[in-house]
Amino acid sequence: MEDVARIAGVSSITVSRVLNQPGKVAEETRERVLNAIEAVGYVPNSVAGSLASRRTSVIAALVPTITNSIFADTIHGLTDVLTPAGYQLLLGATGYSLEREAQLITALLAQRPAGLLVTGLAHAERARTLMKSAGIPVVETWNVQGEAVDMAVGFSNYRACYDMVVRLAGNGHRCIGFVCAPTEANDRARERLRGYRSAIRDLGLPERAELVREAKFSFHAGAESVNRMRAEVPDLDAVFCANDILAIGALFECQRRGVDVPGDLSIAGFDDVELASQVNPGLTTVRIPRYEIGREAARMLMQRVDGRPVSPGILDLGFEIVERQSTVRPG
Q1: Three-state DSSP state, 25
Q2: Would you say 228 and 213 are in contact if contact means Cβ atoms under 8 Å apart?
Q3: pLDDT tens digits for 79-99?
Q4: Of all residues in the chain, what percent are helix, strand and coil, respectively (each to 5)?
Q5: Are 276 and 268 in contact (CB under 8 A)?
Q6: Out of 1.10.260.40, 1.10.10.60, 3.30.420.40, 3.40.50.20, which CATH number does the structure's domain 2-44 have?
Q7: Which end of the chain, N or C, is less packed with Cβ atoms under 10 Å?
Q8: Distance of CA 181 to CAs 189, 249, 325, Å?
Q9: Which CATH superfamily, name and number, covers 52-155+290-318?
Q10: CA torsion, points 243, 248, 250, 254, in degrees to nearest 10?
Q11: DSSP per-residue string spanning 269-293
């Protein structure tokens, strides 16, 4: 650092600011320091710096999976805020396992992150205790209904599914099936199922066990689910899948079997991934602010890291029902 400071003609403190708080340094000075860093091949020792500051310039984030584009969008929003602020992202995947999440939180906190992002509000008790005692800001994402450890940003999974069922019923559907992720370790899936059941009950529609299926998110699972429902429920007229991948799998399977969508069966999804608008018929779905969740979570973390209060601490970004041809019957 002293070599970089000498070459750039600045103090070591200025070099440190360029590395950790670049927005507080004039652009011309920042360029001189960055050029000097490149010239000497300097690599900052983040661990050594954390011994003095008791934190690193790292934000740790845990998502259920990195294979699903919906979480990739959230990570994109997160990095778009963190990177200009001089922070690096340390990412882990829980595999929808609360025990795995607790293990990762333990490992990540040992790296002295400045803040932590986790997915959902449901955690193993050990994980919740660790987050509450870590002494760093924590933001939970993708759900706002429940008790937050610290801060939360997302939307109401319950209300999104409730409103979609109401929309389907308003279009004349009377026997609506529902396919969601396994609910045991997934609070978002539980809230979506609860929203579906509440709407069915309030609308006076059939409540039957064979109308609800839990399945892993895949095209194959969507196809299998719609086949099983159609076999068990002859009067089925709509299937609402709590993920677009499931819904598109169901749509493709109906097309393979000659089932007209939406003439014989309407299909709706959740997330509004890019493919939802490209399939034929276009998929009716719930659009959620995936990118904005990451961006707002990062903003909240940065405010708290800088010692500024965050209000509101629970931020509901809402959702939108996007109606396309998969649920709109001619005439």
Answers
A1: coil
A2: yes
A3: 999 999 999 999 999 999 999
A4: 45, 15, 35
A5: no
A6: 1.10.260.40
A7: C
A8: 6, 14, 24
A9: Response regulator (3.40.50.2300)
A10: 160
A11: -SB--GGGGTSSSPPBEEE--HHHH
> Which of 265, 188, 167 lies closest to 222 in space, CA to CA?
265
CATH class of 157-287: alpha beta
CATH 3.40.50.2300 domain position(s) in the chain: 52-155+290-318, 157-287
- The pTM (predicted TM-score) of the whole model is 0.83
Quote the CA–CA distance of 88 and 294 in Å, as a whole number. 14
3-state secondary structure of 316: strand
User: What are the pLDDT digits (tens) for 14-53?
Assistant: 988 888 788 888 999 999 998 888 787 666 655 555 544 5
* Tokens (6 digits) for 78: 């997160």
